[in-house]
Specification:
Elements lengths: L1 H48 L7 E19 L10 E11 L6 E7 L9 E4 L2 E7 L3 H13 L5 E6 L5 E6 L1
Parallel strand pairs: 3-5
Antiparallel strand pairs: 1-2, 1-6, 2-3, 4-5, 6-7
Length: 170
């Protein structure tokens, strides 16, 4: 009788721990999703509020050279036994003929990283986002065009309805 009682108590304790563990994982997943979508919504609101909502913005710049390059990597722990995904980001600063006050840069991000917009202006720097798979091709085309003094333009469109587009023209 004593062994049966210990076995039942031990089984009940294991089942309770399992239920709490699953509930905690589900709650953490919900918090993570809410946090990232909350950050995404906040980021979208900041981008939309950075400029006058009643006017379209169209910039066409001549690229005269490449500035510095930055290579970075990051991951966020997911607090489970699974391996956290790693995001890679490469940033190429652009030199423009007009030397306009806000800087311009091309940002190449991992395929898994989600960006709110293709073009984003923060702290006076306009970033144009591309998938990492295009980095080598675009870098080679830019370096060749600049070395041969061929015309390279960057066209940036930002509309009040949220449409964003960055186009490199070789």
């Amino acid at each position: 009788w004593y062994m049966k009682r210990i076995f039942l108590l031990l089984s009940a304790a294991l089942m309770t721990a399992s239920v709490f563990s699953q509930a905690n994982d589900a709650q953490f997943g919900a918090n993570t999703n809410t946090g990232s979508s909350g950050k995404s919504q906040q980021k979208q609101a900041e981008v939309l509020n950075n400029r006058n909502k009643n006017e379209d913005k169209l910039d066409q710049l001549d690229i005269t050279g490449l500035g510095g390059s930055t290579f970075s990597t990051m991951n966020l722990p997911n607090f489970s036994s699974k391996i956290a995904s790693t995001n890679i980001k490469i940033t190429l600063s652009l030199l423009t003929g007009a030397n306009k006050a806000p800087g311009h840069q091309l940002v190449f991000t991992s395929e898994s990283e989600r960006n709110a917009y293709a073009v984003e202006t923060q702290n006076g720097i306009t970033s144009i986002f591309f998938p990492m798979s295009t980095y080598a091709f675009i870098q080679q085309k830019l370096e060749t065009a600049v070395a041969q003094k061929k015309k390279v333009q960057l066209k940036i469109t930002q509309n009040p309805d949220g449409f964003r587009e960055g186009v490199l023209i070789f």
